[in-house]
Fold:
Amino acid sequence: MLDGTAAEIYGGTCAGSNGREVTVYSGRTENLIGPALEAFACETGTEVAVRWGSSTDLALLLAEEGDRTPADVFLSRSPGPVGFLEADALLGSIDDDVLALVGVDSRSQSGTWVGFSGRKRVLVHNLDAVPSEELPESVFDLTDARYRGRVAIPATNGSFVDWFTVFRDQYGSDVASRWLNSMVANDARYSPNNRSIVEAAGRGEIDMGLVNHYYQYQEAATAGDRHRAANHDLADGDIGSLLIITAATITADSDNRQAANELIGYLLSEPVQRYFSAETFEYPLAAGVEPADVLPPLKALEIGSVDFDGLGGGFAETIAIIEASGILDQ
Structure:
């Protein structure tokens, strides 16, 4: 039997080996997705081998390996790196019964990827330093002088790169670049990741920062009243409220398609979706599981309004724009 978080997903006796193995390249971190993979292996008897890394690095590795890759399943922090692979014909099709577990807005039109959880972009802020009347309605407001030196940006974090790529897709590179350059001119502060921004906001070391929603809830659950921060949802439809979905796909040359489909279907099962909701505070996308009570109803920029399939080739330009802006020196 399992113990720890994995046992909350599957509490039964582990099955004997069925002789099958599925190899996963995971751009989701081990602490977030590991319990679900462990539960799958225990419940089904299918061995799971995992290579961990950033979604972008793993996508580049898959492209380099081509038909020699040992990977059967690729789990990405967003559909963007998946779109990069699709452009090189390196993805296979997911079975229709697995795709049908989510709505049409949460899967590829061509059937090459399916979303299994959602992460909303928000502005986290210190409750003592930022009164409600000072909170912006849009990310475009953050270039105003009243926010000078008060906003942190996780510019090299994968989620920010994903978000900025969608920003470019929706508004054009010129508008997106001007916004980022204006943020730098307004003394926005660089931070390497979302969690460090949330922790710093909770301690009062920064006033606010652009992050994924769930880090705030995780930190509040751990630190309690000592954590003096909260999420602020930007206006409905604002690019700053984008919901970015995590994506799963099967590689084009997988020799273990049945096991790969079973694993992806497992990620969309009720116990795993409930885990994403209750334990990681992400938004579940399948099986009719409701978000955790602490999460507000989704009013983010709709998934279906963004063509995630077309974003795969934009990451190199996004990174070049970020580096050229000077934010990494802030």
Observations:
- The mean pLDDT is 92.
- The chain is about 35% helix and 15% strand.
